[in-house]
Amino acid sequence: TPDELFAVMEHYLDAAQHAQKVPVEQRLDKELVLLDPVALNMIRSIDQRHADERVRKIITLFMESSTQHMSELQDLPENTDFDKICHAAHALKSTSANVGAVRLSDYARRIEYRARKNDAFVGRHWNDQLDQVYHETVLALSEVSEKSNRPKNRF
């Protein structure tokens, strides 16, 4: 009935009004490509004979180092060690850029910039968005690594 529909809509509208508004400059830029293949292709071009092996190794190194950087960036709203945040965000930004993880690199750049200014990270959205883009990036890079692990069809 219309009354039931209105009650449901009112419930969701009320929840939306109380939801935290995330300023534009703090939002994850989903217009940016997740992975830019140019970076990985440049890695492949260094040594054509061992290209896939090299890509897998670089991705593995990224996975190992990024796990450490991500752990250092947990609980941003409660963390006031801006030097530590800045260092971890800078490292994550750089390693992400090396493997072509454009969106993750961009978000890490924003975190680094804010930490350099000793600007507090108010709101859970900082970690929520960082976790989201990190997990999307890891999945995408895992697929790339898996594909470069498959035998090539020589025919």
Main sheet: strands, sense, barrel = none
Element order, helices and strands?
HHHHHH
Helix content bin: 55-70%
Multimer state: single chain
Structural class, by secondary structure, is mainly alpha
Number of helices: 6
Indicate the radius of gyration in whole angstroms. Answer: 20 Å
Report the uncertain regions. Answer: 14-19
Overall strand count: 0
How many angstroms does the end-to-end distance come to?
A: 64 Å
Overall 3D shape: globular
Proportion of residues in β-strands: under 5%
Residue-averaged pLDDT = 84
Brief overview:
It contains 6 helices and no strands. With 155 residues, it is mainly α.
Structure description:
The protein is an all-alpha fold. The chain has 6 helices and no strands. The chain has helices spanning 2-18, 37-46, 51-72, 82-98, 102-116, 125-147. The radius of gyration is 20 Å and the shape is globular.
What features would you highlight for this structure?
mainly alpha; 155 residues; globular; 6 helices
Write the layout of secondary structure elements.
Blueprint lengths: L1 H17 L18 H10 L4 H22 L9 H17 L3 H15 L8 H23 L8
